[in-house]
Amino acid sequence: MTQPARILVVGGGYVGMYAALRLQRRLRRGEAEVVVISPDPYMTYQPFLPEAAAGSVAPAHVIVPLRRVLPRCQVVVGQARRIDHARRVAYVSTHATRSEGGGDAELRYDELVLAPGSVSRTLPIPGLAESGIGFKTVEEAVGLRNHVLAQLDIASSTRDVEVRDAALTFVFVGGGFAGVEALAELEDMARYATRYYHNVLPEDMRWVLVEASDRILPEVGAELGRYAVRELRGRNVDVRLETRLASCEKRVAVLSDGARLPTRTVVWTAGVRPHPLVAATDLPRDPHGRLRVTAALRLDGTEHAWAAGDAAAVPDLTAEKPGAECAPNAQHAVRQGRLLADNVVATLRGGEPREYRHALIGSVASLGLHQGVAHLYGRQVKGYPAWLMHRLYHLSRLPTANRKARVLSDWTLAALFKREIAALGSLENPRAEFELAVGTGRQPDQ
Ligand SMILES: Cc1cc2nc3c(=O)[nH]c(=O)nc-3n(C[C@H](O)[C@H](O)[C@H](O)COP(=O)(O)OP(=O)(O)OC[C@H]3O[C@@H](n4cnc5c(N)ncnc54)[C@H](O)[C@@H]3O)c2cc1C
């Protein structure tokens, strides 16, 4: 009896999850087995991370458990560390391989779907590696929320003016979706939280957005980008365009315009680069390190390997400019994931793959509660209607009815009751209390 083909999906994000969902639906029983490798047992709906950081949506509701939605796939929690496509082998690190100490497991496959996404694009800025905070995962979003609330507690309880000023200064680097939305939502949340502090006023806080180019939110167009700058400045956010972070050592952020900002918070959201796994393969890459794929999402000049999403340079066949590539965003990733699965199934059955073709329908961005910008189907909208469109758009895109219902109930509860404002910083060290009880722990810092 012949073995079914094995399709190995590396990555459980947008591309990986949507490709696997489509594969399990379209493949006939016994036709192929699908193995999904992901470091986390869930997919993260990243556009809701700013709302998770602000506490408007529960962190558990912006993730989708892979095992629940992929019952016909085998989900392996682990990391592909190297791929030898010539031999059709992925080297995978899991909890079992690490505890047994015998090196990575070899996982053979017939078809490879490579979708490890991207990581933050950092620069060799002094102090950044030691003190910068990223904003790509749900853990980072929760950590940042607790960190910001903890700064209010520090400011409220210290007598040292310098410590207080640094605690109340929040620097965000990068004026794309992630940076602007994260800053706007967290500023909104912190401003609300100051109502409950007897000695911290909203105007005591300093929120700074540092952007190297002359605009923010390029995805929504120049006019709405300018509106977003005005809106943020109207809320006292210090938006610095054509400015770069020069260093952030010893809790001082130094900017290229000469400003020195004592701060305990530097959030880095200045772009992405392909996941380092891409470089640990024998697959073709472009000069930016992304996987070089054809419009059919097949690795260029390579059989049995497919890729899409942030890690791949996908030709944009709808662009007027020849040689253009699709932007790294969720709108493309979802559609590419589905088409990629269709193409894998078609080729397994001896058919021809189709080419990816999608013109962006626009973009939406939240600027905090009840404020936003939207550029959808050629229409530009701002303020409350745009914020509503942002919510409805992302709610409609959130995978599974279960998650949609939970997010909707989070919003309803947040509208009816007061917001949560307590910092749960001890989440990062849940054993501290017990260690103190048994006498092996440290006394909390005075
Ligand atoms: C805060 C934030 C807000 C955003 N907002 C928007 C928005 O409003 N609109 C929009 O269109 N886009 C938005 N994006 C961008 C969008 O989320 C990405 O373009 C999209 O996630 C790319 O999909 P992907 O599948 O390529 O990567 P991801 O969705 O990042 O998935 C990659 C997966 O691969 C896994 N992985 C990594 N390494 C390995 C390994 N070695 N082995 C196995 N698995 C691995 C990762 O854990 C992850 O699950 C936002 C991004 C962020 C960070």
TrEMBL record:
Domain FAD/NAD(P)-binding: 6-336
Entry-linked InterPro entries: FAD/NAD-bd_sf, FAD/NAD-binding_dom, NDH-2
Keywords: FAD, Flavoprotein, NAD, Oxidoreductase
Highest taxon in the source lineage: Bacteria
SUPFAM superfamilies reported in the protein's UniProt record: FAD/NAD(P)-binding domain
Pfam families to which the protein is assigned, alphabetical: Pyr_redox_2 (PF07992)
Sequence similarity: Belongs to the NADH dehydrogenase family.
Protein's UniProt name: FAD-dependent oxidoreductase
Source organism: Streptantibioticus rubrisoli
Origin organism lineage: Bacteria, Bacillati, Actinomycetota, Actinomycetes, Kitasatosporales
